[in-house]
Amino acid sequence: MINIRTRLTYQFILSVSVILIFFSVGVYYFSRLYLDKRFYKRLQDRAVTTTTLLFDMQAPDTTVVRVIDVQKNEILLDEAISIYNANSRKIIFSTKTSDSKFHRSFIPYLDPKQQVVFRRSGEHQFLAIHLRHRGQNNWVMVSGVDTNGNEGLKDLRKILIVMALSGILLLAIAGWLFADGALSPMARIVAQVNAIFPGNIKNRVKHPNQKDEIGVLVSTFNRMLDRVEQAFLTQKMFIANVSHELKNPLTKIYTQIEIALMKRRDPEEYEGNLDSLKSDTKTLIQLTNTLLQLAQTVVSSESLKFIPIRMDEMLWEVRSQVQKWNEKYTVKLHFEDFPEDENTLIIEGNEASVKVALMNVVENACKFATDQTAVVQFLTVPGKIQIRVFNKGPKIPLEDLPYIFQPFYRSKATADARKGHGVGLAIVSHIMEVHKGGIKAESDDVGTTFLLEFPLKIKEPEKKDEKMKS
């Protein structure tokens, strides 16, 4: 594959060479036009002199020939002058009898409607002037070869070819240097990128001009590095927290089993050990399930099957299941301004994922509420469904709010109050992102409110069949 530098050089050479060749051809063409015009003017002067001598001054033919010879300050190769009488269709005068046959070949091109006729035959240039004298139609014909002009055009052609080839060579060198200078910032950027490793991922690519195209590319790349750095930090935090969360229950389980096996004990003591093992195992199972849910929503989000979901019915199912799993929890549903149009209650989503998101938020609200009660408010706004989940409980500090949706992050205000792993809200956040919705939290001294927004799935009205059944 051709690299960018070579491709730019080729493009530069091609574009400028086309312009240079076009310019050279233009110079040659217009120079030739100028020389032709100048030579035709000389032929016309010869014709006018001949006309004056023969018709105005009525000089003898021999005198005309001598005068014309004297006027030949500039030698015209193969110069010949003839006068053709259109009435008798004969050549009545010729400076060279041998050339009269050459002039006869131009007679078919003589148009009485034109005053002057120009023709070219090979290197010979021909001019004829129409003259009326005493009722006779005469054509004064002059021909010759512009030796000086042709030699000048040959020299000009050689000069233009040499200059064009030299210019293309210089263009190749200049194009290569131009491409090298244009791509040198890219080479420096590549060197900087290659120097960035996970150990120094905080480093960023530098470019002096942030407003040019390369500067925009560098800014975009730096933003990507910001996301990569955040992903690395999240991964490190995830691994550290998972290791810690898994290590504690596993260590406790192993220690209790080891103590139980050290000596024989009473059945009551064994029952106590089994209850403790059951509690630690339950904690481990809950953590494993939440990690599996998080992994499933992240990995298989693109393959989730979306179907129409009626959200009011979904909330009733969530309420029933939360209260069934924990009899101490209370979920209060409020449907304010319930819409008459059922289409405004339907979203497009994955039923299992939406249920997991609502379950996690409602359970979380009940768990941290002082009265173990979650108040769920259902609202419909143009194009959206809003679900507000409120609970009375400890205030989440303002500085913690931006991080509560990160995996394993737990606010200090709630970490000491209830047990948990800090994964549930991360799962909810990703599910809302997959469903093109959003979630945000507000917290004050009274309590905390989570606002979930789902975009509506508006059904198109069914078209009625206008055909009449027979």
CATH superfamily descriptor of the largest domain? Histidine kinase-like ATPase, C-terminal domain
Report the count of strand segments: 12
Q: Which ranges are low-confidence, i.e. pLDDT below 50, for 5 or more consecutive residues? A: 59-67, 69-73, 459-470
Task: Return Rg in Å.
Answer: 50 Å
How would you describe the oligomerization state of the chains in this entry? single chain
- How big a fraction of the residues is strand? 15-25%
CATH architecture label name of the largest domain? 2-Layer Sandwich
Strand order of the largest sheet: 2-1-5-4-3
Q: How many domains make up the 3D coordinates?
A: 3
Cα(first) to Cα(last) distance is 71 Å
Helix run count: 10
Query: What would you call the structural class?
Result: alpha+beta
CATH class of the largest domain: Alpha Beta
What is the fold-level CATH name, i.e. the topology of the largest domain?
Answer: Heat Shock Protein 90
Largest sheet: 5 strands, antiparallel
Mean pLDDT: 79
Provide an overview of this structure.
With 470 residues, the protein is an alpha+beta fold. The protein folds into 3 domains: 4-153, Beta-Lactamase, CATH 3.30.450; 213-298, Helix Hairpins (Orthogonal Bundle), CATH 1.10.287.130; 304-455, Heat Shock Protein 90, CATH 3.30.565. It contains 10 helices and 12 strands. Strands 2-1-5-4-3 form a 5-stranded antiparallel beta sheet. The protein has a 5-stranded mixed beta sheet with strand order 7-9-10-12-11. A hairpin with a 4-residue loop joins strand 11 and strand 12 (448-455). Helix 1 runs antiparallel to helix 4 (147-194) and helix 6 runs parallel beside helix 10 (424-434). The longest helix has 53 residues, at 4-56. It starts with a helix and ends in a 15-residue tail after the last strand. The model is unreliable at 59-67, 69-73 and 459-470 (pLDDT under 50).
